[in-house]
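[Automated response] Your request has been received and processed.

Submitted sequence:
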Amino acid sequence: MDEDEAIQVSLPPYEFPPPWIPPEQRCSHPDYASTLNQFLSRTVRFARSRQTNQFGFHIKGGKEHELGLYVSRVMQDSNAYRVGLRVADKILVVNGYNFETLDHDEV
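Generated structure:
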């Protein structure tokens, strides 16, 4: 590649890794968590709001984007918020229907 054809790339500032925590201190250290519970599948149950007929969350993604369907926003004080639905949760199944292969518009 010629010097005049060089590609300029902007990168975010480098972030140093977190400090090393000795194994004997990890169980009680506030910055260290070895639990994977936050990444395991879970089931949440809720119904649409009777007042607005809405579910209380927004989604992004879909098969057309070669992605699953993910929660992009949860309205505070909605039924979804109260049962613990969180931004970035992946929606796998709803009422027995597999959502992993649906386009966004099909949902």
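Summary generated for your ticket: Helices lie at 79-82. The chain has a mean pLDDT of 82.
If you did not submit this request, please reply to this message.
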